[in-house]
Amino acid sequence: MIYRNWIHKKERRLTLLDTDREVFPFEWGLEWVDGNGGGAADPLSRLKKTAARALSDSASFFEPPPLDDWELRGEVLEFATPTPGSHEFNNRVFCRLFEAAKPRGAVVVVPQWNADSESHVALCRILRRLGITALRLCLPYHEMRRPPGMKRADYMVSPNIGRTLHATRQAVMEVRQAAQWLRTQGYQKVGVMGTSVGSCVSYLAFVHDRRIATGVFNHVSAFFADVVWTGLATRFVRWGLEKHIDLDSLREIWAPISPYHYIARLKECGRKHLMITARYDLTFLPALSEKVFEFYRRHEIPHDRADLPCGHYTTAHFPFSYLDGWHICRYLRRHLG
Fold this sequence. Notes:
Helix content is 38%, strand content 15%. By secondary structure, the chain is of the alpha/beta class.
């Protein structure tokens, strides 16, 4: 109890370091999912129907086109996003390549929400030293893909419901195209690794692409909407949502980007994957993680699990960052060899 309270206190103190948060206005964002503007009648019903269609045919929803317009400049891989939107600055994808001298395999690395340009770079360098080529993806609306003048990646997860759905789908397809590119470069084994929202994105890519050999998912949760609604890191997003929509409706609309609905796809695949959780997480609440593991146990789906004795923010701090990195590198080295 004392230790848990100490971790929770550190979590709350770390989240207060972000002084540039703002509450964005609520928007249905219909134009992001079905091509129509916000003036359409009954947008809630429209979004629910759109989500139901996407969920019923998720294979098509997350299927990217062939990647044929890529360009490698030094260590930067660039290509057009498979799902362009009205924000031109976000329609190009940038990945940083960390090429191993004698590669065993390769992995697409997907950082967390609001990651800066150095996030996960140290991990990529360690993987390179271990003989694994790492391709670090810049998520939608992050780094050079952010709107001019915006300090945070608030357009990726926001009270704009349709844009959040579009951005997450966009990221999943980009991960799949990045993995596709690595295979064209001769890598026979390609994995994925993601943290926080990057974990959600990489998991959705993993379950929809049998060619991805293995995965490491750093922080685990069942439902996208529940993380936004209950998480410490996403409270500003909830404040923009809660006067306009309830959690049950939001969970239904964001069902296509929620990992829980796709776990059953892994029943017969036999691909190794590691799920990492933080025992005292105030953003990906442990109860939401346990919903995932309960499904795994009930359906006897093989997987590996690691529990860190920390929270969401403290995962990135010593000594927990070293323990987390050890789990990630050890697993990828074993399964991409």
